[in-house]
Specification:
423 residues; alpha/beta; Rossmann fold; 7-stranded parallel sheet; 14 helices; globular; disordered C terminus
């Protein structure tokens, strides 16, 4: 099977990038896999892909590259296919419209996977007849604006399958989005086993990791740790990650006199060697689309104290068995959950072992099996039965319409290019 992943920027650092490379590497054991990055801004990917996975780009943003597109006139014209309500729309352009359409119009893969809403729209509207088109949701439907949801509603029924990272989000999609004939499946993100030994439980550190963004509520965690320090001043907290909340958190730490107990460590990659320095992990988000850091910590043997926020933590942690789930926004509850594990070595050890065992269900081999089954089923269903034949006929018709529309747009863009060269 030939499989292509279409991603925003495979050369950066982020949860979707990490997840895509993890899944691609596992699938590459049995299939021909490539990652197609819309943008390239550096020489090599920040997260090294598996050597068996081909990585290529559509738009070159490197400053000193002989193939750089930074001065291309279409780069300054707004995108018309990528939805205007999508958060990354300002980075897309008439040039990305053109390059993505050219890729999808000639792709020879059996399966093409989109990894964000705007790219899923391209996938639905512009993929040539033949490949199975699978859209992925790495956030949640509820986080999208009404305007974006309207754009997705128009495009998503043209997909062949759709995946979310949690069953809760899959239920939301099934109940609120009209996608007849498009199976919506919950497939969690893959997290490989760490290359380091699990924690030994002796380090007196609580560890947290993620973007320093308001949704992560690290201010809540810092305030909760002030309560922890009162009872257990021998324990400390490390927070890994970068973001716009750093100065605000630094001020809060100083205000609470926690400068010897709470440390902002900055970004870390790989993070596994930092997880194992601790004995407990903490997540205080007001919302999580999945909870990648929860699984990463558990795979290192850390029980996680997490807010029971929508939508991911409750599907990852079994409260009281491999971690603790506490109410969202409750400082005392977070402090209480942390102190329960800090003060009970035996409980912490049992939860650590349980976390190691339960987190194996997120191993890339198991997640890849889900995707292989989905891909195979959709390939087999293509053209079978009246519904399949109707969808195939509609797709062929759309292919002709899209081809004609792209041809007309290309004529206009060539005129724009000529104008740019003569200006």
């Amino acid at each position: 099977m030939q499989i292509s992943f279409l991603i925003h920027n495979g050369y950066g650092i982020g949860g979707t990038i990490r997840t895509t490379y993890n899944l691609a590497a596992q699938l590459a054991e049995h299939h021909d896999v490539e990652v197609v990055s819309v943008f390239r801004h550096r020489e090599v990917p920040a997260l090294p892909p598996d050597p068996r996975v081909r990585v290529r780009h559509l738009v070159d943003l490197r400053k000193d590259s002989p193939t750089s597109d930074r001065s291309h006139p279409l780069l300054k014209a707004p995108a018309t296919v990528f939805p205007a309500a999508e958060g990354r729309h300002h980075q897309y352009s008439a040039l990305t419209d053109e390059r993505i359409a050219a890729f999808l119009g000639s792709v020879d893969s059996d399966v093409v996977v989109g990894t964000r809403p705007g790219l899923n729209v391209h996938l639905a509207r512009q993929t040539r007849p033949g490949p199975v088109r699978v859209g992925q949701e790495h956030l949640t439907l509820d986080t999208h604006s009404p305007e974006l949801r309207q754009a997705l509603q128009r495009a998503y029924p043209r997909l062949d399958a759709f995946t979310t990272t949690t069953e809760a989000d899959a239920r939301v999609y099934r109940s609120t989005m009209r996608m007849p004939g498009v199976p919506v499946q919950a497939v969690p993100n893959p997290v490989p086993a760490p290359s380091v030994d699990p924690v030994d439980g002796h380090g007196k550190w609580v560890v947290a990791a993620g973007r320093l963004a308001p949704v992560k509520r690290y201010d809540l965690l810092v305030r909760a740790f002030a309560r922890v320090r009162e009872e257990r001043p021998d324990w400390r907290l490390r927070i890994y990650g970068g973001g716009g909340q750093r100065d605000r958190l630094r001020g809060l730490i100083d205000e609470l006199g926690l400068y010897n107990h709470v440390f902002l460590m900055g970004p870390a990659h790989p993070i596994e060697s930092e997880w194992i320095k601790g004995s407990v992990a903490a997540v205080t988000s007001s919302m999580e689309s999945f909870g990648m850091t929860i699984v990463e910590a558990m795979r290192c043997g850390l029980p996680v104290v997490s807010t029971d926020c929508p939508l991911g933590p409750g599907e990852i942690i079994e409260d009281g068995v491999d971690g603790r789930l506490v109410p969202v926004g409750d400082t005392e509850a977070v402090a209480g959950g942390l102190l329960q594990l800090i003060n009970d070595d035996d409980l912490r050890g049992r939860m650590s072992r349980a976390a190691l065992e339960s987190s194996q269900r997120f191993d890339p081999a198991r997640i890849a099996e889900h995707y292989e089954t989905l891909f195979t089923n959709r390939l087999s269903a293509r053209g079978k039965g009246p519904g399949g034949r109707l969808r195939a006929a509609l797709h062929r018709g759309r292919g002709s319409l899209v081809g004609g529309a792209l041809g007309a747009r290309e004529t206009g863009r060539q005129a724009l290019l000529r104008k740019g060269r003569t200006a």
